[in-house]
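User: I'll paste a sequence; please echo it back and then give the predicted structure.

Assistant: Echoing your sequence first, then the prediction.
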Amino acid sequence: MTDCAVSRVGDITPLKIQHWFTLLKAEGKARDTLWAHGQRLRSFIKYLVPKYLPSTILSDFSVPEPAALGRKNWLRKGEVTRVLEAANGDPELKFALLCGFDAGLRRNEISEALVNWFDLEDGLLHVSKHENFVPKDRDLRPIPLTERFAEFLKTYLEGRDQNQYVLAPEKTVKGTNKYRYDTNTRVRSHFVRCGVKCTYHDMRRSFGSNRASVGVSIYKIAKWLGDRIEVTERSYGHLAPQDQEINRGV
């Protein structure tokens, strides 16, 4: 909350809490993101009460309402396969698509990915910090590579310097742009050609939704996405298939 001039516990006031959420909304944060921030803040402040903060500090605070249950706009696996196959003539585009659909990477993570993130011997993608990048969750995040992603990378990364950026290795800084190198226009145009309703972030949603739909645990999906369990549960938990264990013991 440094944007609200909060540098120590004693600076926290109801007015500054509300101002912080106003700033988050002005930045365009999604409702689920606001809800997650609210949950974390409330837990943190409850920990500080009453030793460091008065018990009344949360009396007028309520966690912002999350978005409606579930994230509806995502591509099913058959559509994902068709979209990927249609990109076979453009390796850079296909890399970006596979990062989203098969690994659930964020847009900035795709831009900042280094060759050494991809361990083809062990079949793992390691989202990790480097000189110009720190992951949103700030932790090393290992994600298993799908077979088709690993097969594509064998050729695409062959002979590349391990410390190079995968996309546009000659471009090393963001400059005035939000992303160091942005493939959004190319990806969006590809979706239009394929006749699908999809955005860059919908690829990440598709990754989580397709795995939840076949029974992959919410815990694993959360770890792969780098999201908190409660956010992942709210977004994808409703897609879990019927669990036959309900009949055990009957």
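The radius of gyration is 21 Å. The chain has two domains: 2-48, 77-238.
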